[in-house]
Specification:
135 residues; 7% helix; five-stranded mixed β-barrel
């Protein structure tokens, strides 16, 4: 196999209201935090560990859909790619960030049910028209 693969699939709840921003090319993108939980047992005690993931959605149509329909607590399925970045903070200390990028044309965002109405899950991908997305 000569190619490589960088693919991440997550199901979790949105931790705060998504941020919608605009690029210098006047295209919307979205930033949101997603919490995933792992349950396990230590002896007779049930434990739960929460992981937080920073998600960036670079498809303008998906960003508009997120702006309209995704809120804190919404459960999402996110498919994208992982990206690590290094930067120096204001004190010159090296920091590393990990983000999940949902790129144009190949990323996927799906609502996993609507907590308000209990409706069936709806789906959106980078190739869907905003008018075709039922959520």
């Amino acid at each position: 196999m000569s190619g490589t693969l960088n693919k991440v699939m997550l199901i979790g709840r949105v931790g705060s209201e998504p941020e919608i921003k605009v690029t210098t090319k006047d295209e919307k993108f979205a930033k949101l935090s997603l919490a995933t939980n792992k349950r396990y047992k230590v002896g007779q005690t049930n434990q739960e560990k929460t992981q937080w993931h920073m998600i960036k959605v670079f498809d303008p149509r998906l960003a508009e859909t997120i702006e309209k329909y995704v809120h804190k607590g919404t459960m999402l399925y996110v498919e994208g790619e992982i990206e690590y970045s290094k930067y120096a903070d204001s004190e010159g200390n090296q920091k590393t960030t990990t983000e999940i990028l949902v790129p144009k044309f190949s990323g996927v965002i799906r609502m996993v049910g609507d907590k308000a109405t209990g409706s069936k899950p709806a789906a959106a991908s980078s190739t869907d028209s905003v008018d075709d997305i039922p959520f």
